[in-house]
C-alpha cells in the first residue's frame, strides 16, 4: 500500500544554490544518514544527474535503487526504476523563492514490495523526511560557507 508524506523547510539560499547541492548526488551520504552511496549512470544535456544508482539503508533495511531524475528551474523530481524493497517510489523538491530565502517542499510516495508494519514505515518515512529537509539545509549552508 502506497504511503505519502511531505515536509517544508526554509533555507537561506537561492533555488539555484539548493539545486546544485541536490545535483551533487555523490555527496548525499555526507548529509543524509539513509544514503550509503550514489553513482551517476547518465546525465542530462545540462550535466545534471539523469539515471542514478543509490545504496540506501533505513531502519536496518538495505536497498539498492535506480532512479530517474527530472530537473526544472524550481523543481527536481525522481521516479524509481529498480528496487529490491519497493514497488514504486516518487519524490520531489519544489522550491519557492522568498526574498533571500527559499521555501523547500519535499514530497515522497513509496509503495513497499513486502508488507511493513505501519509504525516501522512511519518511522522510516520520518527519518527520510528529516534527512531530505534538515540534512539538505545543513549541507546547503556548509557549501555556501566555502
User: What is the distance, rounded to the nearest whole angstrom, between the alpha carbons of the first and last residues?
Assistant: 43 Å
Mean pLDDT: 94
Shape: globular
Radius of gyration equals 15 Å
What percent of residues adopt helix (DSSP H or I)? 25-40%
CATH level-four homologous superfamily name: START domain
CATH domain class = Alpha Beta
Subunit arrangement of the protein: single chain
Give a quick account of the main beta sheet: strands, pairing sense, barrel closure.
7 strands, antiparallel
Name the strands of the widest sheet in spatial order: 1-7-6-5-4-3-2
Question: What is the helix tally?
Answer: 3
Question: In terms of structural class, how would the helical and strand content be classed?
Answer: alpha+beta
Notes on the structure:
The protein has helices at 15-23, 28-31, 118-145; strands at residues 3-11, 35-40, 51-58, 61-72, 75-83, 86-98, 101-112. It has a single domain (3-145), classed as Alpha-D-Glucose-1,6-Bisphosphate, Chain A, domain 4 (2-Layer Sandwich), CATH 3.30.530.20. It has 146 residues and is α+β, with helices and mostly antiparallel strands. A seven-stranded antiparallel beta sheet has the order 1-7-6-5-4-3-2.
Helices and strands, with pairings:
Blueprint: E1 3-11, H1 15-23, H2 28-31, E2 35-40, E3 51-58, E4 61-72, E5 75-83, E6 86-98, E7 101-112, H3 118-145
Antiparallel strand pairs: 1-7, 2-3, 3-4, 4-5, 5-6, 6-7
Helix pairs in contact: 1-3
Protein name: Cyclase
Pfam families: Polyketide_cyc2 (PF10604)
InterPro entries: Polyketide_cyclase/dehydratase, START-like_dom_sf
